[in-house]
Amino acid sequence: MPPGRLQPYRPKPRFRRQDGGSILTTHVDDRPVLPAPDVFHVKGGEDAVGDVRDRIATVTTAWGVPLSPGALGDVKLCASEIITNALTHAGGRCWVTTERTGRHLCVAVADRSLRLPVVAAPGLDRESGRGLAIVEALACSWGWEPNDLGKRKFTDVGRPKSRPSASPSGQE
Which stretches does the entry tag as region Disordered (predicted)? Predict the structure, then answer.
């Protein structure tokens, strides 16, 4: 898909939840498959984005998602960008869902704004406008879909994208 084009959301199959302690476990045919999504409401404030980033990292670690420290950093940065956009452009409230989809970790943010997300090409002198370009560069995939109250943006992060190595041997 060309850069700047948003990918359509493909709905996931519905699962039933069963309480398995502090983190819910999803079951299909009474066999554990994947952890149930972590869903919560966020109200804007001084520490809101940092608190959400920490929660996503904690849940991801508790689920045992096999992400390198760099890939977990990508998850946190992508989440920060789409959460900040939602809080800035949609009235200071949003709903965050972290979900393990098997090969990827999906972070989705629902807000009440009808304003569509756009990848901007900001000038070097602007302080904002780079968030979705960062998400596009780091995420395996990302996109948005309309919902009954506004929209839902999501980013999937899994295996890190190939990046040039900083070391002469080609190893990190």
Answer: 1-20, 147-172
DSSP string, 46-114: TTHHHHHHHHHHHHHHHHT----HHHHHHHHHHHHHHHHHHHHHTTSEEEEEEEE-SS-EEEEEEES--
pLDDT of residue 165: 39
Number of domains in the chain: 1
pLDDT at 124: 66
Instruction: Say what angle helices 69-89 and 48-63 make with each other, to 10 degrees.
Output: 140
Q: Could you tell me the pTM of the whole model?
A: 0.70
* pLDDT on residue 64: 86
**Residue 149 falls within a domain, yes or no?**
yes
| SS3 state at 15 | coil
pLDDT band per the 50, 70, 90 thresholds, residue 79? very high
Residue 115, domain extent: 18-157
- DSSP 3-state assignment of 44? coil
